[in-house]
Structures are given as C-alpha cells and as structure tokens.
Amino acid sequence: MAQFPEMVQAALLFDRPNPVNLDALIENFVTAGTKVGIRYNRVETKPGVFYRLFGGDVMITMEYIGSPAKTQVFEAALATPFTRLTNPNARELIARHRSHILVNVHHGAMPPTAEIAALLAKMSMSGVLQRGRSLDHFRERLSLCGTLSHLAQAMGKASLVHWTSSDHLLIGEVFANLAARGVPSLLHIHPFLLNGGKSADGRDQVTIKTFGAKYFVGREVHVVANPLPWLESLGLILTFLNVATMKNGYVVPDGDTFGDDDHSLSCRVRHISAGAKSGDLDGPLYRLELLFSRKHGFASTGYVAPARTFDDRTVPADILSDLGRERSPVVEDMRTKRQMVERVGGHLEVSETAPPRGAWGLPRVFGRKKPQDDA
To answer: How confident is the model over 166-194, as a mean pLDDT?
Structure first.
C-alpha cells in the first residue's frame, strides 16, 4: 500500500470577507462529535480566526485568512485536462476571491512536518509519527476534512474549493455534492484524461490514468482507450475502487472481469506489475480493459459473447468431463471466488466463450444489480 498523505487539507475560496461564522461552525462540529462519543478539546482558540481541536488522536485546525491565497499554489491543478474541462472558469474564480479558509487534519498531537520528523529522529522518537498511517486512519482524515469543509461551504458558499490530496479545483456546489458521497469518491481521485486516438469504427477515444487510487488499492488505475464518454469510463474506476474498499471488499483478480447482471457491459482487470507496461504507462497499475458495451455499440477486438454461464454449483456435465483431473481445483476456485463476490452483494458467473466441447476459457464475471457510477 502506498504511503498516505499524513496531512489532509482543503482550501475554500470566497468572494467576500468574513463569509462564515467560524465560532458557530466549530461549536456545531464539536457538539456533533460529542453526540457520537468523540470529545474535541479546544487546544487553541482565536475567535473568528483560528481553532485547533484535538480528539480521538486527531488534530484539526481551521483558519480564516482575510486575504487571497497565493495563486501559484493552484497552477498544477489548473493545468490538468480534468480541471480545464470541468471548471474552465477556475482561473477567473481564483482571481476574484477575497478571503479563504484552510482546513487541516492529521493524526497525533504533532504536525507531520519534515522539521518535526527530523527532531524526533534525533531524539529516537520517530515512532511518535507512526500513528495514523493505516488506510482506515487516512479515510478518517479525509472524512473529517470533508465534513468541516462541507460545513463551511454550506454556511459561506465558497466559489472554489482546492482539495489538495487529489489536487482538485472544484466549484463549491460540486465539492459539496462529492463530499457527501463518502470515501472514496471522485473527490479523492483525480483522473488524468488522455487522448486515446480513434476506435476501429472511427470514434474518438479517451484513456484515463488516476492520481489518488494508489492510496486505496496500492497502485494507480489505467483505463485503456475506448470510445465511451469519459464520465462512464470514470464510473468503471469508481466501481473497481468501491468493490475493493467496501466492507468485505476485494480487488478483482488478475484476468477476471466485472460488469452488469444483464451482460450489457464487461470490463477485464489486469494487474500490471512494477517494471511492466500498460501501453505507454509504467507499472505497477491496475489496468481496466473495456470488452463490451451494449449501450455504446462497442466490442473490443477478439471479444466473444458468452455461450453459456454457470458457477461452481451448476457446471455443465460436459465441461466437468473435459476438466478431468483438474475438476476439483477448478471448481474449488470457482467456489472461493463466488463466496468472495457474494460477500459484497454481487454474484459470480463463469462464461463459456466457445462452442460446447471445444476450447473454452473461464473468465469470471462480477455482476451487480446496477453498476456503481459515482461520476
């Protein structure tokens, strides 16, 4: 698993001074925490300007700054294709803002800065900063930062929000919508949209490389060029991540597929190891290859519709006969994967992709009642 950002930060930009009653916001947050059993102590307070809270081994700071933020900190986010496409007025919004609020969340009483780390190392106390380095702790930081930022957005109507862990620049209303969706969502994944050339039938294609997926599944995700609208390709990424991170979730195994119950969509997952390539991109990556989309009239080269589908309990007799001595381990593998898929509310199908009694393969299909699409 990749090292997680130890500090999660959001910057909310406002077109006017004093957009939020910071004291009331903090009071509401602390009260809500008490109701769920978390006591936040006010470590430092400058009414209307700055609050430092500590509770549940998490340090939170919220600061109002009555002047514009430094514009150069936004340049990298402004330059991405995703920002240019979804927020073409971002630079204008930055130039127009007159004040901003910073929200910072980290685990432990000491900020995870290089200076603090060096000092603790000299004192043989490096373990003090080891807290908060699990995925659950990272998700907690994201959730808390999202909650406080959402409260500030609701009270003050930010014109723009810079979510730094994924380098997103989002209109305030868009941020509020994404922050309410839980972790992970598009808020936590920055998709780099790349030209994928033309499909075999002449349609424009897009390929996507993520920034941020590695924090949840250990590596970034690459969607191979296909002619689907980029939002739908993004939906494939979010489905993959949601399956991996939900309770009892799992990373779709190498070579297996996921899709819809009605076989209207199929996507294969490949695990690209370090040192290997996915197109022009270096591994390690999870590679998502769209095989079939009925909605968009797309079938990849070599795609063959399944002739028969079954699971470990309904394997046809002729296939069992063909398996011979491999019958028991193959059926057991099917059973293990079926149980894994069922734990997250899906079901497993094994597809025969060639005429009966001929050469056949066993691509596994993960199906859900509806595809997860948080885009």
So the answer is: 95
